[in-house]
Amino acid sequence: MPNTVAGTAIARQIVRSGTSPSANYRAACLAKSDKDFVNKLKMVEEELDETNHWLDILMRSQLMNANRLQPLYQEGRELVCIIVKSIISTKARLTADDAAKK
User: Fold this and answer.
1) CATH of the domain at 89
2) How buried is residue 69: exposed, middle or buried, by Cβ count under 10 Å (0-12/13-18/19+)?
3) What is the rounded distance in angstroms from the CA atom of residue 72 to the CA atom of residue 77?
4) What are 79-94's pLDDT values in tens digits?
5) What distance in Å separates the CA atoms of residue 89 and residue 86, rounded to the nearest whole number?
6) How many folded domains does the chain comprise?
7) Contact (CB, 8 A) for 23 and 43
8) Of 12, 87, 82, residue with least CA distance to 50
9) Which of 19, 28, 64, 75 shows the greatest Cβ crowding within 10 Å of its Cβ?
10) Which domain holds residue 30?
């Protein structure tokens, strides 16, 4: 990261949003219900997306070489896709369970 005000600010944001998903995923794994699991996964999704947002800003502003950031950005997008699919499948199961109870 460049040693500038913008570089430092973005680096701090990335540290916050980039370390949060693992803690939130761990919390999701300990969820008390499927609804709680979905809510915690939504936090994981939001933090991953925020991290990608900051990486995108770094690439567009040319504060860092986009070639160095692109693999991280792509991995973040892939993780978001995985989390979203987990949310969708869990919601579908909840809906099916609710329908079966009626």
Assistant:
1) 1.20.1440.60
2) middle
3) 9
4) 999 999 999 999 999 9
5) 5
6) 1
7) no
8) 12
9) 28
10) 5-101
